Amino acid sequence: MIIELGHYALILALATVIIQAVLPLIGTIRNDRALMAVAPAAAFAGFLLVLFSFSVLTFAYVVSDFSVANVWENSHSLKPMIYKISGVWGNHEGSMLLWLLILVFFSALVASFGANLPERLRANVLAVQGLISTAFALFILLTSNPFIRLSPAPAEGQDLNPVLQDIGLAIHPPLLYLGYVGFSVCFSFAIAALIDGRIDAAWARWVRPWALTAWSFLTAGIAMGSYWAYYELGWGGWWFWDPVENASFIPWLAGTALLHSALVMEKREALKIWTVLLAILTFSMSLLGTFLVRSGVLTSVHAFATDPTRGVFILAILVFFIGGALSLFAFRAATLKAGGLFAPISREGSLVLNNLILTTAAATVLTGTLYPLVLEALTGEKISVGPPFFNLTFGLLMLPLLLAVPFGPLLAWKRGDMLAAGQRLFAAAAIGLVVAAAVMYAHSGGPVLAYFGVAIGFYMIAGAVTDLWLRAGIGKVAGNVAFRRFVGLPGSAFGTALAHIGVGVTVIGIVAVTAFETEHVVEMKPGMQVEAGGFTLTFDGMRRGQGPNYSEESGHFTVARGGTVVTDIWSSKRFYTARRMPTTEAGIRTFWFSQLYVSLGDAMADGGIVVRVWWKPMILCIWIGTLIMMAGGAVSLFDRRLRVGAPQKARKVKPALEAAE
Amino acid sequence: MTRKQKRLAVIGGGVAFLVAAVLLVMFAFSQSIAYFYVPGDLAKASVPPGTRIRLGGLVEDGTVKRGEGSTVTFTVTDTLATVPVTYTGILPDLFREGQGVVAEGAFGTDGLFVADTVLAKHDETYMPKDVADRLKAQGVELSGKETIK
To answer: Cβ contact (<8 Å) for B91 and A522?
Structure first.
């Protein structure tokens, strides 16, 4: 009964979001305020209905109701509770329902925090959100319904793919979707602006908080996915340029460009048309990512099941929204007036360079991802485009960007002084070179590029600090004045600095682990030793164990440094009984930012076992850097100047609005 | 410089950057694309040693042999032809005899395929799509265990 209620709520939600899509649009055409006012109410109702529906599905998983086909296919009564809950979105139907839930959640957010938006803009934005929600609600109900019953109900479920039975599944998809879907709000704002044919700096100020929010979540989602793949797959890799990874990385690159171009638009009223186009493209890339992952054209751990009707349906959604948005853009872009002239060497100029490189990089990754699919569709030839392609193209494209990043904030708006900025960055460059020299002294014999990479990473960090240093006037004015100035700096200054520091930290991690990691694959018998990263690992033997829904064999290693035992590592191979599927549970020990990573291979006939041992220097910097980037996004979000349209009470907004005007 | 010249310089710079990026992409494609083959293709047209390819098929029953250390040899088959493969490293969890596999690498001068990556991303109901498509196209009967869900 409760299942049917959830199903029914989803159908009601579809009706609600159709109303949300149609009535406000008619309202703006007829200038009917009553119709426009329907939008927020419909958005709230739609959110509550989908939330109820999602809760019902979660309930079915929690109580292991195997009369629901979706639960039977993806759950098991012995599965730990956390995986029963996260298993709700560990399958195609459930994850699409989560997608829809987050979409209507963002609609409800726009409705509740958008009280200070112009009436027409808010109605149009919510109508576009309603249209997207309608498409996805239809998709779920027609092709991917999670509420279908089985009769008679099976006694036991088929269990969840063991690779997904991990805390990573509880965190990674929701974060990623919050990012993906968050960009729908920017898209809706862009479409609303095009419908009205009006756009100004205030528009950018409303859009930027949403872009920042979505971007921060997407950053977290990608980083989490990367760390999950790193520890769960047992291959020791943290990024594979897998098409599914690229599908989330392309919107991230486009979204990063959007953040920066919206800045120009907000401050200088320039790049309007480009910003609108980027807002459309970013969400289009999110939709494309959803299509690639969910349609089954790619096979990976993410493609839960392949069903051609689903692929065609998502493709239709894709064509409708991307095609429709771009057509609207083509018709209306000319009505948007360009403004704000600037010299090539200026803050605007540096942000244009940022956009040029980021969008080119996004296009490059997109090309490499889609080329095999297109070629196969056209000629039937099967090829693969592997990491070497992406490393070469993406790496070379990023190089000028990373070098240019510290310059951006140091250049003045309208007309900047490159020479002066260069002089100010002299110390930062020197710090980078000194650290690189120190690393070269400590770890000689690595590739020259690696030392260069380390230098760039530290140069970026020092460059970001330089900006804050100069703004506060440290060394130029009295200490207490400088401190007051430093504390009083706008949030966006800290946000920018943090985000750029984060990029530097990530670069250091990537360079260090790529150039200096060591890998040993050895066949070991109890008592044998292997050296890695200055540690001696002694293999002590194997032990059998039993988990709730798996059996495992674990190897024990004692880790010593200079003759004294430091710690020990358990590394296991599990066998999940319901799916008859083995997984590798790597043993990982962290030493500051570096890690020892041990994974087990096959047992040999003579009692030995193949063991793979990695020393991963500074690898944690990769993810710590992304956390710092996210923190930068969050700090920017709390900049008072951005409060217009951001989550904020109406009363406090008024003075800010006046000040802005 | 006049404003017009400045603007031209900026646009010219942007276009030059894009052209460079396109050339870079084309160069990288020419360097790093790996074509997909099944053993039957290789019997018809040989691939020169050293050219990177992806070799797909089924791991022939009874051919997996452990060599010294972590070196493994096995034979990939599409039931029409077979190719011997050698690989040093840890095989994926799901690597089994009689099941689908994709090996990435190149032929040595001795005709032995040296793989540096072995993929067996499948559970009991799934095998790599490339492999399944080609085997089906060649009329190989896939038992229920190996068909795509």
So the answer is: no
Q: Summarize pLDDT for A470-521 with one digit per residue, the tens.
A: 999 888 888 889 999 998 898 889 999 999 999 999 999 999 999 999 998 8
Torsion of Cα atoms, A356 then A357 then A360 then A362, to 10°: -120
Chain A closest-CA separation from residue B109 CA (Å): 23
Does A305 sit within 8 Å of B149, measured CB to CB? yes
| Res B148 pLDDT > 50 | no
Q: Which residues contact A395 (CB under 8 A, 6 or more apart)?
A: none
Q: Which residues of A touch B35 (CB under 8 A)?
A: 381-383
Please name the member of A357, A363, A523 whose beta carbon is closest to the beta carbon of B69.
A523
Residue % of chain A over a pLDDT of 70: 95
Based on its alpha-carbon atoms, the radius of gyration of chain A, rounded to whole angstroms, reads: 27
Angle (CA) A177 A369 A164, round 5°: 45
State pLDDT tens for residues A393-449. 999 999 999 999 999 999 999 888 899 999 999 999 999 999 999 999 988 888 899
Closest chain B residue to A608, measured at CA? B69
Instruction: Look up residue A163 and give its DSSP letter.
Output: G
Q: Percent helix, strand, coil in chain B (nearest 5)?
A: 30, 30, 40
For B66, name the nearest residue in chain A, comparing CA atoms only: A604
Predicted ipTM of the assembly: 0.80
Q: What is the pTM of this model?
A: 0.91
**Nearest CB to B14: which of A356, A384, A397?**
A356
Which amino acid is present at A600? Answer: L
3 state SS of A357: helix
User: Could you give the residue ranges of the DSSP H alpha helices within A233-346?
Assistant: 243-268, 272-294, 308-318, 324-332
Give the Cα separation of A265 and A343 in Å (integer).
Answer: 15
Burial string for A476-509 (b: 16+ CB within 10 Å, else e) reads: eeeeeebeeebeeeebbbbbbbbbbbbbbbbbbb
